[in-house]
Design goal:
about 5% helix, globular, six-stranded mixed barrel, Barwin-like endoglucanases, 1 helix, about 120 residues, two-stranded antiparallel sheet, disordered N terminus, mainly beta
């Protein structure tokens, strides 16, 4: 974007934010090979008490909550608390309770918007 400021023409670059953006969502469990059971942000990965997702921290901020809207219309709030080697750009990985549920989830296109934690 070009902006005129005090007679000077400035080139201002902005980075896109991911508000209301489409993401590809997959799922993972804490029982994977090489998994420690602790997220990148230091939270114990407990899918029974927390809704956690792995994100690319260049796109979504770790420690923030996001509303994930699924293709069937329902939505759930997840905490961005983990990262993953394959999680780059507009891709997220949702922590689920079992390998069977993660496999059943498959790959879905979701819409993600920032929200307050606990909402």
């Amino acid at each position: 974007m070009l902006t005129l400021f005090s007679g000077l023409l400035l080139l201002i670059t902005t980075t896109g934010n991911a508000e209301g953006a489409k993401f590809v969502a997959t799922a993972y469990t804490r029982d994977c090979a090489g998994c420690s059971g602790v997220t990148k942000s230091g939270i114990v990965a407990d899918p029974y008490s927390k809704k956690i997702m792995a994100v690319d921290p260049r796109v979504l901020k770790l420690g923030k909550c996001y509303r994930v809207k699924f293709p069937d219309g329902h939505s759930t709030v997840y905490l961005a608390a983990d990262t993953g080697g394959a999680i780059k750009g507009h891709r997220v990985d949702l922590l689920l309770k079992s390998k069977a549920s993660a496999k059943k989830f498959g790959r879905q296109t979701v819409t993600i918007t920032p929200t307050k934690c606990g909402s």
